[in-house]
């Protein structure tokens, strides 16, 4: 079993990220598996080096140690050639085309294939799509020249031989799209998805990276220990009945029945 912890350096870690780390490390360790760290910084506009450094520091403070990907640090922004290569491979078997539709025009859930036969050439302000009969033509690179989240993640999961993807249930709706891309890219191994509960605010919204009251740094500054922060996140997703001290090294015990 090889799973991954894949934060985006667009903000600091909060309790929601800690909950995900508990599931990732807990399930991996309980199964004798390994954890790969992957910095998902494909969006170069929103990512910041100081967030990357902050995430690494917080993870180390919490005690979650990746088995791979930390040194050297595995970053999507260093893997442009890998995505290019995957795109070239995709062209051999599928209709890959340039699309200049605005986000507004594509507001519907499934892209209608407007640019499929327009024969546009690549250039600034133009994205790249692949024709798919299953759920709308998928965007692989956006109009700003960034590889899309789905494409980068699916290529990485295949190339890095990830066997289990463990993530919040807010991403459940992307499984179909990602499995479709996986088939197009001819992944030979299967992938298991595990979706877990999210920590919600009292009004039912997801935590955001600006959530000061749940940020790892804020809790640390308030005097909580790493084990207390982990215990608080575990309680918030119902893994334990009430907040208690849980060291990172024993999160596997929360999943002994898995
Ligand atoms: Zn288009």
Q: What oligomeric state is this?
A: single chain
Shape: elongated
Number of strands: 7
Integer average pLDDT: 92
> Mind telling me the C-alpha Rg?
19 Å
Helix content: 25-40%
Question: Tell me about the biggest sheet?
Answer: 3 strands, antiparallel
Explain the overall architecture:
The longest helix has 16 residues. The protein has about 260 residues and is an alpha/beta fold. Helix 1 packs across helix 7 and helix 4 packs across helix 5. The chain starts with a strand and ends in a 22-residue tail after the last helix. The protein has a 3-stranded antiparallel sheet with strand order 3-4-5. The protein has a two-stranded parallel sheet with strand order 1-2. The mean pLDDT is about 90. It contains 7 helices and 7 strands. Strand 1, helix 1 and strand 2 form a beta-alpha-beta unit. It binds zinc ion. The site of zinc ion (ZN) has 5 residues, from loops.
Give a nutshell description of this structure.
This protein has seven helices and seven strands; from the N terminus they run βαβααβββαβαβαα.
Sequence-ordered SSE layout with sheet pairings:
Blueprint: E1 2-5, H1 15-30, E2 34-37, H2 49-62, H3 80-93, E3 96-99, E4 127-130, E5 138-141, H4 149-159, E6 164-168, H5 175-184, E7 192-196, H6 216-221, H7 226-236
Parallel strand pairs: 1-2, 6-7
Antiparallel strand pairs: 3-4, 4-5
Helix pairs in contact: 1-7, 4-5
């Amino acid at each position: 079993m090889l799973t991954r912890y894949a934060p985006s350096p667009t903000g600091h870690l909060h309790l929601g990220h800690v909950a995900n780390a508990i599931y990732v490390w807990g399930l991996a360790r309980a199964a004798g598996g390994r954890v790969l760290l992957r910095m998902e910084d494909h969006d170069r506009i929103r990512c910041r080096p100081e967030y990357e450094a902050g995430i690494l520091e917080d993870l180390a403070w919490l005690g979650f140690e990746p088995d791979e990907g930390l040194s050297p640090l595995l970053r999507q922004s260093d893997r442009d050639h890998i995505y290019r290569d995957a795109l070239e491979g995709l062209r051999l078997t599928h209709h890959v085309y340039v699309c200049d539709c605005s986000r507004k025009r594509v507001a519907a859930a499934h892209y209608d294939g407007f640019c499929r036969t327009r024969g546009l050439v690549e250039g600034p302000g133009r994205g790249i799509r692949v024709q798919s009969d299953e759920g709308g033509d998928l965007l692989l690179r956006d109009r700003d020249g960034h590889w899309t989240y789905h494409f980068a993640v699916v290529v990485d999961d295949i190339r890095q031989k990830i066997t289990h993807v463990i993530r919040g249930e807010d991403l459940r709706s992307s499984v179909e799209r990602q499995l479709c891309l996986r088939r197009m890219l001819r992944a030979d191994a299967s992938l298991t998805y595990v979706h877990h509960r999210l920590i919600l605010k009292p009004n039912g919204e997801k935590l955001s990276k600006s959530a000061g009251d749940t940020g790892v740094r804020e809790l640390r500054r308030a005097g909580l220990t790493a084990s207390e922060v982990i215990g608080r996140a575990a309680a918030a997703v119902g893994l334990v009945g009430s907040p208690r001290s849980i060291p990172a090294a024993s999160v596997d015990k929360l999943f002994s029945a898995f």
